[in-house]
Amino acid sequence: MEFKFEIEKKLEGTLGRAGVIHTPHGDIHTPAFIPVGTKATVKALTVEQVKDLGSQAVLANTYHLYLEPGEDLVAKHGGFAKMMHWDGPTFTDSGGFQVFSLGAAYGEGVSKVATSESLAAKIAESKDEQKVERQTKVKIDEEGVDFQSVIDGSWHRFTPERSMQIQHALGADIFFAFDECTSPLAPHEYQKKAIDRTHRWAKRSLDEHQKLGASHSTGLQQALFGVVQGGSYEDLRRESARTLGAMDFDGFGIGGSFTKDDIGTAVRWVCEELPEGKPRHLLGIGEPIDFFYGIENGIDTFDCVSPTRVARNGAAYTFDGRINLKNKEYVEDISSIEPELTNYTSTFTRSYIAHLLRSNEILAATLISIHNLHFVVTLVAKIRQSILDGTYTEFKEQFLKRYYKKVD
RNA sequence: GCGUCGAUGGUGGAGUGGUCUAUCACAACAGACUGUAAAUCUGUCGCCUUCGGGCUUCGUAGGUUCGAAUCCUACUCGACGCA
After folding, report:
1. How buried is residue A392: exposed, middle or buried, by Cβ count under 10 Å (0-12/13-18/19+)?
2. What is the mean pLDDT of chain A?
């Protein structure tokens, strides 16, 4: 019943590896994609569907479950996994990301992953004149964070200790330390201040976690991952990884915002510093290309809302790139979304799904979510297999060539 | 047959003398979405354009007026009422 990570095979000449994470609720064969079930549900899907498409674990969110229905109620069910009938491994995010999405990112149009052009434009814009005081729903201080509920506007407070208490009540196998996810627009000076504070919070999270763990009667051992920050600055990323790497964490999350073409580089800086024998999770990343650059630079697990979010908005992954099924060209297309992938959704035509989208039927969200999650879960599983088989380079080349081919 | 009311862009429906290619919604056509404020958001949506602008629309045909989707007349069509 112990948490343990084993490396099965390394990817020659890179930081990549295939391995297995043992958790109290089963193994995760890595690299792996972990579907996000923020509020103890993977949106639009039943747990049977999530399982059948090959998911090994689910990640839920502390912020959302704390607000609704509250961690005590979740604890009465025996944890969020039991509540949602998921019997495999689970993660909970700390609520730290909401410090970003409801704080620095709130109403600013900044996203976790930006293209360098859009970022440059935003930076120019923010330097332009004195901007009106921006409205956020978050106030950060040394002790923790005050934040306003997105549900009813009421004010709440998270500290590292509080986040750990809530996460223990929610009952996942793997927790994340409470961190501050900064804006990509923040200057080096602020990023430095933020990681120093995040490191102090990490230590406090660890202390509280150990205190709470000692009092558990279940005999299960939960793992705690520290979260590396540092924005797009190499010195800060490395410093953050070294500092947290020296602490007694079971694994590490890599958080923060990235420049689209540079995710791999930032990950490499971090993974070069982190202890090799502990698992690394890349928080909130998961477009097809990102998996390759993440994995060869040392990432073991990913989570991302993108497959399910874009699915609800009508976009589907195919081996020839992402398509928008709402578009006219699919109205009479009687092929399946991706003929080379077999799952529940593949028995339906693009035309039928386009019809469901156009008539606003909720089944469209379910069918495309099944497909997209199956696509990314399978893709990462294939990458894992290619590492074991020694065919990674060919596999990567073949996949990317087709997925990102430019049409002239 | 008489009377009343009505006819607006793909649809519904505002607008009742200038600021009207005409509010708005829907539909349509695209785009975005990366630790879920998200079954969401953004743009386009008469024709042409060298993107400055140009041209044509509010049932049809006339008229009044400097100026009409808006006022008048006739006609066409529709709904309702009376015969």
Report:
1. buried
2. 94
Q: Specify whether the CB–CB gap between A350 and A314 falls below 8 A.
A: no
ipTM metric: 0.92
Nearest nucleotide to the CA of A101, by C1', is: B37
The model's pTM: 0.94
SS3 content of chain A, % helix, strand, coil (to 5): 45, 20, 40
The Cβ-side half-sphere exposure at A402, using a 13 Å CA radius, reads 9
The bases of strand B with some atom under 7 A from any protein CB are 27-41
A303 is catalytic: yes
Of A207, A193, A186, the closest CA to residue A240 belongs to A193
Alpha carbon A182 to its chain centroid, in Å, reads 16
A225-251 pLDDT, tens digit per residue, is: 999 999 999 999 999 999 999 999 999
Distance between CA A365 and CA A315 in Å, rounded?
10
Nucleotide nearest to A227 (CA to C1'): B35
A93 is catalytic: yes
Q: Give, in Å, how far the C1' of B81 lies from the CA of A104.
A: 67
Question: What is the per-residue pLDDT across A130-140, written as a single tens digit (0 to 9) for each?
Answer: 455 667 889 99
Distance in angstroms: CA A231, C1' B19: 51
A283, closest nucleotide (Cα–C1'): B35
**Low-confidence residues of chain A, pLDDT below 70?**
1, 126-134, 214-220, 406-408
